[in-house]
Amino acid sequence: MEKIHLDKVDKALLARLQEDASLSLADLAESVNLTTTPCWKRLKRLEESGVLRKRVALLDPAILGLSFTAFVHIKTSDHSEDWYQRFVDAVTPFDEVMECYRMAGEYDYMMKVQVADMPAFDLFYKKLVNSIDGLTNVTSTFAMEPLKYTTALPLV
Fold it and tell me: pTM score, two decimals?
């Protein structure tokens, strides 16, 4: 994927949207010293280039009763393309999986799982290990307290 050049105004627009995607076009334009038409054109270009993928609402997991965060580390002995695709297909439907990565190092995959509590995690764990053959090690660690959480990317 080709890297896109962002000028100071583009970066300011993206920074404002990362802070508050609900800003009106007029407020967004004013915050970066543009009128609405040039601001809209920049946003359109950023969307078409793929830099701006979505505008979403961030929910508070604790208020929703989903304050139990687990990091699941997975090893497999099968590194074939076929197994990889079956793994992706099996993991993707799990709503509890917030993020999933193919890793370098000791573990082959890592996922962040968000659930209500330990019994809910145990249920998730059982569904996970029973839905995918070829797992050789599934190790979980649990977050005690979130110290930093952001979805904002650094725009340097």
Answer: 0.88
Task: Give the tens place of pLDDT for each residue, 104-142.
Answer: 999 999 999 999 999 999 999 999 999 999 999 999 999
CB 79, CB 108: distance < 8 Å: yes
Let me know: does 19 contact 27? Beta carbons within 8 Å: no
- Measured CA distances, 81 to 78, 87, 88 (Å): 9, 10, 11
